[in-house]
Amino acid sequence: MLMSARLTGDESALWQAAARVLDANWTGTATVPSPGLYPHQWSWDSAFVAMGLARHRRDRAERELASLFAGQWSDGLVPHIVFNGDLARHAYFPGPELWHSDRQAGAPNAVRTSGIVHPPLHAVAALRLHECAPDAEASRAFLTRLYPLLAAQQRYLACARDLDGSGLVAICHPWESGLDNSPAWDRPLGALELPPRAYAPARLPRALPTGEDYDRYVWLVTLLREAGYAPGYLRDEHPFAVQDPLVNATCVAAAHALAEIAEIIGADPVPHRERAARVHDALLARLWDGETGCFRARDLRAGRPIPVVTLATFGPLLDPELPVPIVRNLVDLLLSARFAGAAGYPVPTCDIQAPAFDRSGYWRGPTWVNTNWLIWHGSLAHGLTVVADLLYGSTLRLVRQSGFREYFDPFDGTGRGSHDYSWSAALVLDLLA
Ligand code: 9WN
């Protein structure tokens, strides 16, 4: 365990508790998001977990990413789930039988996977691994192996997911955002026309999101699978296509991280810098709403912005070149009574004053450690120490008070969802390091 000597007694206890969670959730090749509820490997979870493992068990951090990329498809798609083939068929719904990656020519043979993506934070994670590596040479060798896979991941997103030629990446399923039941998806999901009884009714793994949401999620997967996950189908026919500010901000951050990785290993950083600039320009041109001072997701099928303001509006703080007036606007909004100003434990996932806000509704109101970490990380890059300190303090307060829960009540910090959640533990290690 690489625990820093400068930690106080209380911080060391927190560190050790977080490390124990990661140890318990380690399967031998990767980390499950939580014991029981999520028994496979999830993509953006692994990026967060790798950053924590880098501070605790560096060997495992590399294996975590290697295990995820073993699920990469030949076109570069990194699936949002890599299934553990040793588990019983019904360990998690929906399992591999819904996705049928085994029938896709480009999917790997050795593992079964989903067929959609997650926010691509893996280059950011890989760079963070390098920054805290005890052995720079060994770390460079790891980055050299991972680099082509990370570059292919970005190429897939730039080619197959730029559905309108704007430079922005579109998600084709709410799960791709990582914020499954965000109120931002209510309109595009509500506009779907589900044929009666054309698919098996969803078996719910838990109370949230609602059964109706699950039916729509499953229906979207059915459409994707039947179309062979083909880029032409995604572009021209798939009924759910949304450009989200948080997802696109992670693309900008990933492109910058890839450029730095390219420099470290002696490859050409220029294409990655160009890619970052393209998504940056498109974010500002298409998703920034100057009148109300926030970023909004855009529903490509309806051809209009989505009105509800969620935490995704702060995602572009991950873009190091975000113009200062926009950064100021976002900080004002973040500190206002719509977000941190009225929440004892910020940052709530949805504008507190929006009708859709629900303090215990999964991604419709609660505070999460991973989104706090992203805003903290972005704030530091812009020198926003007041915001960064606020998030650092409130995130540690949450886990001290309620443990490494999946998500938390933004007003009183009550823990909700599963216990011993991996990214809550991993990112606390990163914060404390
Ligand atoms: C669907 C694993 C994942 C997270 C997501 C979170 C939840 C899955 C689910 O769990 O999604 O992919 O079953 O609801 O929303 O962000 O990656 O922790």
TrEMBL record:
InterPro entries: 6-hairpin_glycosidase_sf, 6hp_glycosidase-like_sf, Glycoside_hydrolase_63, MGH1-like_GH. Residues 38-424 form the Mannosylglycerate hydrolase MGH1-like glycoside hydrolase domain. The keyword NADP does not apply. Keywords: Glycosidase, Hydrolase. This is Mannosylglycerate hydrolase MGH1-like glycoside hydrolase domain-containing protein. Belongs to the glycosyl hydrolase 63 family. Signal peptide: none annotated. GO terms for biological process: oligosaccharide metabolic process; protein N-linked glycosylation. It comes from Actinomadura macrotermitis. GO terms for molecular function: Glc3Man9GlcNAc2 oligosaccharide glucosidase activity. Gene3D superfamilies: 1.50.10.10.
